[in-house]
Description:
The longest helix has 35 residues, at 348-382. The relative contact order is 0.17. Helix content is 65%, strand content 0%. With 383 residues, it is mostly helical.
Amino acid sequence: MTTTTLTTAETADPDRTPLRPGRFVPALEGMRALAALGVVLTHVAFQTGATGQPVLGRVWERFDLAVAVFFALSGFLLWRPHAAAARGLGVAPSAGRYLLHRSARILPAYWVVVCAVLILLPSAAHTAGLRVWLSNLGLLQVFVPFTLTDGLTQMWSLSVEMAFYLVLPLLAVALVWLRGQRARLRVPVVLGLGLLSLGWNFLPVPTPDGIHSDNWLPGYLPWFAVGMLLAELADQPSPWWRRIAGNQWLMWPLAAVAMLAATTDLAGPRGLVHGQPWQYAAKMALGAIVGFGLLAPLALRPDRPHRFLQSRVAATLGRWSYGIFIWHLAVLSIVFPVFGIIPFRGHFVVVYLLTVVFTLPLAAASFALVEEPVRQWTRRRFG
Length: 383
């Protein structure tokens, strides 16, 4: 993928020019790569016991907010055509075409990992009954008790993401009347959706043992909503807020402050202990700030150079980021016995490096042999 050539007007005054629909922003791909490596980091930190360190442990633990970046990216990229269409800047894809392409992008490579783990990884294969197989293949792990299994526990977030894919067309229909002159109301409506979702965990939703309703889509809508908000803002040629929200020297420190605040009990207790509803809401709010703060300068000022995020290395890792995400826990499970390292007994840096080194070839193979061929075939076959 390559960037689109800039028009004279865009070059002259990027503050006043909306981001064109469908435009590829290389820096976002680089940020996706960093988010993937952040997810790997937090899982390695947990399984090596590094999260128990007095100060840095809470920081490593809160790299789970990399998921907020993933969700915000999905919100921005997938809501972008609908935001643009509402202002007469393009045509949003039909629900059928959109869902077909999303399924082709996500499911084939995911199914390869599920089959590999449930057949070849001993700690998962020995406990994988029919319910575990069906729940994982169908991305229903957050709804079916005790079906998150070794090598696949990170897939809870993919289950949430798939739920967002299914709900997005319904949200688009709900806001279809906000077009033309009324499109200016879309920003407060999307912002209100995110704020309203912060109250999800306060609702007494009955669930069976082993299931928490805060792992369902409504609980994570604030993270998707900030991406949707960016998609709405990207079409508005208003210079004053673009200078603010698009200023990396303001927004990235804001994201860092939110990240540091999330390392305290404000965002929940240490470890995997279930926090109070207000702590969950605080974590969602802080994650939304992290996601918005990191992405806004890239999405709203796409012509600003970002040397590392636009580098060849970052672009390559960004293309492989989905493979990194879906394979890394299976690799991590193998690293411990192969290298004679005892889980929860240290060696954080060594285990992290080994996990990344052995995950990257699998991610590259996933992209080259599954993800990209399926995507290209789907595009040729169905448009």
